[in-house]
Amino acid sequence: MTQILRQHAEDQYAEELEELAKHDARQRPINWNLSPWAVSTYILGGTLSNGYEVTPKYFGERRLIEIAIATLATDRALLLIGVPGTAKTWVAEHLSAGISGNSTLLIQGTAGTPEEAIRYGWNYAMLLAEGPSKQAMVASPLMHAMENGKIARIEELTRIPSDVQDTLITILSEKLMPVPELNTEVQAVEGFNVIGTANDRDRGVNELSSALQRRFNTVSLPLPRTVDEEVIIVKHRVEELGRNLDSPLEEPALQEIRRVVMIFRELREGQTVDGQTRLKSPSPTLSTAEVISVVNSGLAISLHFGDGELNANDIAAGIVGAVVKDPIQDRTVWLEYLETVVKERDGWGDLYNACREVTG
Questions:
Q1: CA-CA distance, 192 to 287, in Å (whole number)?
Q2: If you ran DSSP here, which 8-state letter would residue 125 be given?
Q3: Nearest 5 degrees, angle CA 52-CA 57-CA 63?
Q4: How many angstroms separate the Cα of 134 from the Cα of each of 76, 122, 126, 149?
Q5: How many other C-beta atoms lie within 10 A of the C-beta of residue 6?
Q6: Which of 67, 74, 128, 313 is most deeply buried (CB count within 10 A of its CB)?
């Protein structure tokens, strides 16, 4: 039987959502599958009255998630912002799954996203044969969400051209989408709302107009506050991905996870974890998402070409590949870090040698 590489959140966590719905006696907004309390429990984890354990999907400040859920219970749209790798897409997907039971109403923002991707398009063969009609219209995910009272997601909102972004103003303020070709409109059903995501690093690419900004309530998702918190997040996500890829996480890998986390945190913050040494930062963001990618890559190398136990040689190439994007500037920063920090750190000799060999 063919196995899906990545299930939708509502499919992967169907059992948890079902259990929450059974034990959720709190008030639910119209067309919500769960109450705001149950949605927060689904995302942050918790124990139900019957002892059932709900796994956490997000590790961070509870208040931020509560604000995001409360926003969606009103007529205000939600904008999640933060640097790459702060789980914006992850949180948006699980919010949609918990509230609507459907996380697939997604518009992926790019520099080439047309207005039709947000509003609607046409089946041109039918349009030419019969003229404009409801049957010839191709509804966007946003229109589907409006008609069915669901949550729509718009990823990388600031990557979308400004004139296309402003298509959302009427939808978010009037809760309707005009269809002038048919002299009609689509009105949003209760339960409809929008979650947008945007990277801090993308500011200035296509900034939101002030009119559009006023239609969103903005919640900023921060990077993990401590090394320990970031290690827990990486461990959880790697274990989850490992189950899907049949690549289990062994205990010795935790040491390597901690080392990668420390390296990336120090380079992005411009100082060592003890605050004693100032460092230059390379051009990449080096977020938690990159740590997860490096560890997963190392696990695959260890599983298929090593002894199955993650070690410095397995992760070295991934670390260097993540840090050194600019072959001149980033390489200089990385070599300086290797010689002044990694080389001098007790117990890190194996990682220094492995990274030095890869860097050349």
A1: 32
A2: H
A3: 100
A4: 29, 9, 11, 19
A5: 9
A6: 313
Contact present, 334 and 359 (Cβ < 8 Å) = yes
| Per-residue confidence (pLDDT) for residue 195, from 0 to 100 | 98
Could you count the other beta carbons within 10 Å of the beta carbon of residue 299? Answer: 26
Classify residue 230 as left (phi > 0), alpha (psi -120 to 50) or beta.
alpha
pLDDT for residue 247: 55
Q: Do residues 91 and 65 lie in contact, with contact meaning Cβ atoms separated by under 8 Å?
A: yes
**Residues whose CB is less than 8 angstroms from the CB of residue 86 and which lie 6 or more positions away in sequence, other chains included:** 221, 222, 223, 287, 288
Note the pLDDT of residue 173: 94
Report the alpha-carbon distance of residue 72 to residue 195 in Å, rounded.
8
Helix (H, G, I), strand (E, B) or coil at 185: strand
Do the Cβ atoms of 227 and 261 come closer than 8 Å?
yes
Which residues is 53 bridged to in the sheet?
47
Residue ranges of the chain whose pLDDT lies below 50: none
CA distance 93 to 293: 20
Instruction: State the pLDDT at residue 101.
Output: 96
Predicted local confidence at residue 254, as pLDDT: 85
User: What pLDDT score does 160 carry?
Assistant: 93
Task: Say which residue the tokens 């400004």 belong to.
Answer: 162
Render 189-237 in DSSP notation, one character per residue: PTT-EEEEEEEGGGTTTSPPPHHHHTTEEEEEPPPPSSHHHHHHHHHHH
Residue 360 DSSP one-character state: -
